Amino acid sequence: MPKITLLIHCPDTSGIIANVTSFFYKRHGNINYIDQYVDLENTVFFMRLECEFTAQTSISNTKEEFKETVAEKYNMSWEMYSADAKPRMAVFVSKYDHCLYDILGRYKSGELKVSIPLIISNHKDLEQVAQNFGIPFYHIPVTANTKEEAAEKQLELLQKEKVDFIVLARYMQIIPKSLIAAFPNRIINIHHSFLPAFAGAKPYHLAYKRGVKIIGATSHYVTEELDAGPIIEQDITRISHSHSIKDLILKGRDLEKIVLANGIKYHIERKTLVFNNKTIVFT
Amino acid sequence: MPKITLLIHCPDTSGIIANVTSFFYKRHGNINYIDQYVDLENTVFFMRLECEFTAQTSISNTKEEFKETVAEKYNMSWEMYSADAKPRMAVFVSKYDHCLYDILGRYKSGELKVSIPLIISNHKDLEQVAQNFGIPFYHIPVTANTKEEAAEKQLELLQKEKVDFIVLARYMQIIPKSLIAAFPNRIINIHHSFLPAFAGAKPYHLAYKRGVKIIGATSHYVTEELDAGPIIEQDITRISHSHSIKDLILKGRDLEKIVLANGIKYHIERKTLVFNNKTIVFT
Amino acid sequence: MPKITLLIHCPDTSGIIANVTSFFYKRHGNINYIDQYVDLENTVFFMRLECEFTAQTSISNTKEEFKETVAEKYNMSWEMYSADAKPRMAVFVSKYDHCLYDILGRYKSGELKVSIPLIISNHKDLEQVAQNFGIPFYHIPVTANTKEEAAEKQLELLQKEKVDFIVLARYMQIIPKSLIAAFPNRIINIHHSFLPAFAGAKPYHLAYKRGVKIIGATSHYVTEELDAGPIIEQDITRISHSHSIKDLILKGRDLEKIVLANGIKYHIERKTLVFNNKTIVFT
Amino acid sequence: MPKITLLIHCPDTSGIIANVTSFFYKRHGNINYIDQYVDLENTVFFMRLECEFTAQTSISNTKEEFKETVAEKYNMSWEMYSADAKPRMAVFVSKYDHCLYDILGRYKSGELKVSIPLIISNHKDLEQVAQNFGIPFYHIPVTANTKEEAAEKQLELLQKEKVDFIVLARYMQIIPKSLIAAFPNRIINIHHSFLPAFAGAKPYHLAYKRGVKIIGATSHYVTEELDAGPIIEQDITRISHSHSIKDLILKGRDLEKIVLANGIKYHIERKTLVFNNKTIVFT
């Protein structure tokens, strides 16, 4: 039987939940999950709902009806996904392999419900890893003079492969505006600090210098401002004076892997909404 | 304007959310918060809802109507609380003072929205602490021969003071069955281990002996079986070989304080439901 | 039998450990604890050692001999404390009471091995709390025009009471340079963020605005640059989109209490050394 | 220049540290790291030391001298390792691949400083993974009737490949006594609970049934009693009522990977000592 996930945000007013849930009830939909949140400051209502229909139902018809009878009435921004649809994910890498190994291990074992049609890298180092896991690898070098050209090639490949979202698995290049514009809130980066501390380059070096007692990692959607996009997930680990920069880099790897993997999962499972440069994550 | 919290559990079927939310919508109720959970194994539906009415509303009438038009239809177990109602909490202590200081500090600073009409203890040691915070203190000794008598005195005091629930802040006596029966799922205990590990006496000694690398604390509702009631909250802290039993006891104190305080808060805020000796905690 | 704690730092070279430990061995000292750390970047050696003598020993003689036979040879900065000596701690507060309640509760239960000769505040609000715990309270208002005068009064009181170090338990005033100079690396502040993120005023508001998924607290020694002194301890807690600023403030209180208490304990137990605006904490 | 790691335990008495450190000082050894611990209950002294020699030094001579001049005097159990020696690690698996992917990813990226001469499995499922990473894979089926025969084959392979220690990466068979005896405190298992809670089979199912709010994982040395060997490392993650058994299994995978990897690292880096069925881990 068909199953959908619905994401909504709209101006807050009374009756939204009653109207939305009644809509599905009348169409033989069994609501398995509902979560909502009201941003009181901006009076915006957010909602995530999973519904399983007890009879054959056309999802495109349901969408049409939802739009006409509910969504327009409340001026909603909304998306309805079929639970069957498997998102198509591109992975960008440079030379570090730990996040790539982690993602591909999770993918192979069925933990990440995505397709991975391609891996793109500005270096050739990880080509062999891609091959071991049977995933097409494209080497697109990026130099000061070839940035635009590279962006065009990347975009072309992504469109050809019908990619839904991009994961930057320690990709060490600034993402060009054109790519960000083509994938708004659909490029996930892992930054190796607990943002907003230590944004920019070499966060472990800065953490060492400042003498912090915890280090962190942050997965976030990429926006034009560097390391300032909506945060999806963060985690930390304790360190002490006895850890060298090399130790921080090593300890940080596990953080990066898990924080990135969780960010990807929330995105795949349609658990994230973005508003005002912040995420609502319905876990 | 009146504000209520509704807690429900009932056999799972479709339409419950739509019916409940429509009920409040029709009565000018604005739902600020809704959370639900379906226990698929037992097909039981659980829900917590906060509703603020935009017009003067009689809560007792609302209860009556809810019962007739919704609750009976779905065979619900349910409770509707006015947000104004401040629960009355009794605290039981013995000789350890850290949890008591913690609770009373939070109470004085307004963090715990309760009344504390009395503190009961089987020892006199903490009478002065109670006096410093201006709370009546009752010394009810418990010996092998006076258990029943003590239980009767406790119950009498609790009923006289219209106590809603009891907190055992490191109270070192087994709670008699009569008291448990009078306060079902309304006695909160703090146990100084991550249950089910190290149930019973001297958990820190057992943890030391086993050589664990983490210790924990657990707040739970008291049932007849010792340390086996529904778990409300748990937390842990890391230890190493270098920590003595005394160190574990000291490190555990902060865990006990926080895990108990969180358990109390969830209870006060009507965030807990109990089913099958487990809690649903809508945080 | 006498017991000492020794803290050392000096240029790194070989033989230091052998020489120091032999020094105590020859004087019937049993080393219970030794920890060391080498800052390879700056080639500085740090060490903490606890030694219990098996015969009556004059600590002042031991100090004199240590200076002559070991310390001068290796050009050491060092301090030797008798384990009996109880440090004298002043507490500065403003209006928030949670850290004060926490510190005084730990003090009363014997967890903090200090004397607290006085509490100083720029407001009268917490006078009653001080009285309940039987600690002298001094109200020294601080206004734009009376800063210097207030600093003089504070310093006079602190010197009269032979205070060893100061704890700022959410004291909401900038500490004047004269006070910092009089207590170098002996003023402990609690800042309600994971520094260096959200230094300065209103960190919870900034954390909310940025949409972080974790909040933190930091205890550090006070230096002239605001919130930039050597970090002693940090901890964090998870939050989500659903937490308001008020929730963050409330959740942060437990962090502040524990992180400050741990910072105080490390200081009291002579576990901290400061070098290059960073701490070495021998836990 | 040669570099060694020394691990010691012996009856506690005064002068051990002075004698050991002087031993190296006199032989042009620069002590980079020293950590010690005294088990006061059993009056046993434990120590770990790293020493770098500033002149060419024969490690076998040093061992001989250490034995004669220090070790025998204090009745020490001790081991001295050359920092160059790379331990040889066998991996046992069954059908779960997440720990294997994790270990091999860390191995390939140079994080684990070991050789992996072979992978042994009672199933053929993961043969392809082993091949992708270029590691010999041996399929040794284990049935009720072939246990002894299988153990012999395993032992033969392990000895032929000069294996130093074994990692059970979710290997779903009881290890025979003969193998445990051949590798005392040198077989590392990952158990998917915070031991001693939920020892034995199906810990996630038991955790779900008990309604715990945290789940854990434990890496430990294998002894004859199931899941009761010395604990090396533990970690936990929070869960809620909303997590199904399947969710626990999924969330637990990350725990298992990290807790096993840390256990392996501590072992490889000679940071663990075992005494009285507990570990001393000098991190």
From TrEMBL, chains A, B, C, D:
Q: Which organism is it from?
A: Salegentibacter holothuriorum
Q: What keywords are annotated for this sequence in UniProt?
A: Hydrolase, One-carbon metabolism, Purine biosynthesis
Domain ACT: from-to ranges: 5-79
Q: Does the keyword Thylakoid apply?
A: no
Q: What does this protein do?
A: Catalyzes the hydrolysis of 10-formyltetrahydrofolate (formyl-FH4) to formate and tetrahydrofolate (FH4).
For this protein, the parts annotated as crossing the membrane are none
Keyword check for Hydrolase, yes or no.
Answer: yes
Q: Which GO terms describe its biological process?
A: 'de novo' IMP biosynthetic process; one-carbon metabolic process
Q: Name one GO molecular function term.
A: formyltetrahydrofolate deformylase activity
Per UniProt, what is the name of the gene that codes for the protein in this document?
purU
Q: What are the positions of the active site?
A: D227
Coiled-coil ranges per UniProt: none
Question: Its pathway?
Answer: Purine metabolism; IMP biosynthesis via de novo pathway; formate from 10-formyl-5,6,7,8-tetrahydrofolate: step 1/1
Q: Which HAMAP family match?
A: PurU (MF_01927)
Q: InterPro entries recorded for this chain?
A: ACT-like_dom_sf (IPR045865), ACT_dom (IPR002912), Formyl-FH4-Hydrolase_C (IPR041729), Formyl_transf_N (IPR002376), Formyl_transf_N_sf (IPR036477), PurU (IPR004810), PurU_ACT (IPR044074)
Report the top EC class in one word. hydrolase
What family is this protein classified in? Belongs to the PurU family.
Q: What is this protein called?
A: Formyltetrahydrofolate deformylase
Which reaction does this chain catalyze? (6R)-10-formyltetrahydrofolate + H2O = (6S)-5,6,7,8-tetrahydrofolate + formate + H(+)
Q: What is its EC number?
A: 3.5.1.10
